[in-house]
Amino acid sequence: MTEPLYELAFYGRLVDGVSLETAKKNVVTLFKASPAQVDKMFAGGRVVIRNKLDKATADKYIAVMRKNGLVCEADVMGQ
């Protein structure tokens, strides 16, 4: 049986002590995204940042996102 693939999902939660403004600035820098794209990401609901990841890669992304102030989760694709 093959290993499941994961999506890196963001639900709008921030690391404790990180302001929304700081998190948004970090995302702009990290993804080279426009402020408008980042505003959509923080508008609420679930946002998939990356998909088709193995568990180890998803965990690495989670760590990077946490360092930048965002709490992300690795959700199994298709569930």
Task: Explain what this protein looks like in three dimensions.
- The protein has 79 residues and is α+β, with helices and mostly antiparallel strands.
- The chain is built from 3 helices and 3 strands.
- Helix content is 41%, strand content 29%.
- The protein has a 3-stranded antiparallel β-sheet with strand order 2-1-3, with helices on one face.
Note the main sheet: 3 strands, antiparallel
Mean pLDDT: 93
Structural class: alpha+beta
Q: Judging from the principal axes of the Cα atoms, what is the shape?
A: elongated
Low-confidence stretches: none
The radius of gyration over CA amounts to 13 Å
How much helical structure, as a percent, in the residues?
A: 40-55%
The SSE order reads EHHEHE
Q: Could you give the order of strands across the largest sheet? A: 2-1-3
List the helices and strands and how they pair.
Layout: E1 6-14, H1 20-31, H2 35-41, E2 47-53, H3 55-67, E3 70-76
Antiparallel strand pairs: 1-2, 1-3
Identify the notable features of this structure and list them briefly.
79 residues; single chain; 3-stranded antiparallel β-sheet; 3 helices; alpha+beta
In short:
With 79 residues, the chain is an alpha+beta fold.
